[in-house]
Design goal:
The chain is of the alpha+beta class. It has six helices and nine strands. It has a nine-stranded mixed beta sheet, sandwiched between helices. It is globular, with a radius of gyration of 16 Å. The structure holds coenzyme A. The site of coenzyme A has 22 residues, from helix 2, strand 6, helix 4 and helix 5.
Amino acid sequence: MTLLEPESTGTVRTTGGPVIATERLVLRAPGVDDAKAIKSLINDRRIAENTARMPHPYTLKDARTFIDAVANGSEPAFLVTLADGRIVGGCGIASLRDDGPEIGYWIGVPYWGNGYATKAARAIVDYAFGELGYAELMAGARVSNPASRRVLEKCGFQWTGVVLQRIRSINSSAPSDRFRLDRGLWASLRSWGKLQAIA
Ligand SMILES: CC(C)(COP(=O)(O)OP(=O)(O)OC[C@H]1O[C@@H](n2cnc3c(N)ncnc32)[C@H](O)[C@@H]1OP(=O)(O)O)[C@@H](O)C(=O)NCCC(=O)NCCS
């Protein structure tokens, strides 16, 4: 079982929305100047086909629509950035199905395999339970996406079953594993990690 160390070292509220700092990553709201970088990272079929709502091709207009939606909307969404400011991906919380709020994330292909998705997902899970006070979180990953499944397992999510998920970029539905993490399990995994550290 995964032991969860607190991922986030702190959340700071700025005029641009909350900023979540972790040891290696900073999660922040997207701004108008980020459109080009977002477009160039997301505009890849490997990302679109593994997420529910992303169009493909992904245009500058799509990036600007996304930035406006985050600024005006109620669903938290963050860019995942490195300490030097480079954008490597994104993550957020949305309600895509009727089983509750779910986390989603993507990492630009050049940055895969560095643990960024796991770190970002843990940070947003901490934010959802800690700052937002959620009782439970859902997540989904296409059955053909073992990397995402692994990320969710490393965050403590537990598999609940398979559903058909609408995938915009393929204009069709695909089998998708569903996962759930409740607040009690999250708190237990976090405190177990701390107990082990002092034992
Ligand atoms: C899924 C995704 C977010 C992973 O990003 P990442 O930063 O490379 O992920 P991490 O490095 O944190 O962890 C990936 C884990 O999956 C494992 N993994 C990668 N490819 C794998 C495969 N083919 N089979 C099994 N495990 C695999 C890695 O070994 C790693 O686990 P480990 O740290 O225990 O070794 C990224 O590939 C992506 O953006 N994909 C497209 C969008 C997407 O799938 N989003 C998630 C759905 S909401």
